[in-house]
Amino acid sequence: FRAWDLDHKCMDDDFFIQSNGIVHDTPSKTYNTPNTEIEENPNLVLMQFTGLTDKNGVDIYEGDIAVKKCSKFCEIGEVKMIHGCWMVAESDDHYFNLWHYRHEIEIIGNIHQNKNLIGG
Predict the structure, then answer these.
(1) What span, in angstroms and rounded, lies between the C-alpha atoms of 91 and 79?
(2) Are strands 49-53 and 59-61 parallel, antiparallel or unpaired?
(3) SS3 at position 101
(4) Strand, coil or helix: what is 89?
(5) Phi and psi dihedrals of 28, rounded to 5?
(6) What ranges in the chain are assigned the alpha helix state H?
(7) Is the pLDDT assigned to residue 109 strictly greater than 60?
(8) Alpha-carbon dihedral of residues 18, 86, 83, 120, nearest 10 degrees?
(9) pTM strictly above 0.70
(10) How large is the average pLDDT for residues 30-36?
(11) CA-based end-to-end distance of the chain
């Protein structure tokens, strides 16, 4: 996983996921204890790794923006889990299988930092 920090508008790689799914971050305040303290952070948006890489060897995560170039047109969309499969969704009713096209697509950003790359 990686996480988008809604407060700081950046990716956060220093977090913990509790077995019940609650996301914890390193503390933003100092405590007077010898223990390392963690805090629940509901402002971290988890992005799951698909286990796949694009044609350039870039890891593909949920929420990434992928482009597939064809001879006459390009298809661009968001990486999502749909019907139990990783897909690239151009819209709610038009998507293609990420596994099948993984060697043809390129990751060009993610929905948090590059919303302008896809419609909506």
Answers:
(1) 11
(2) antiparallel
(3) helix
(4) strand
(5) -100, -5
(6) 98-101
(7) yes
(8) 90
(9) yes
(10) 63
(11) 25
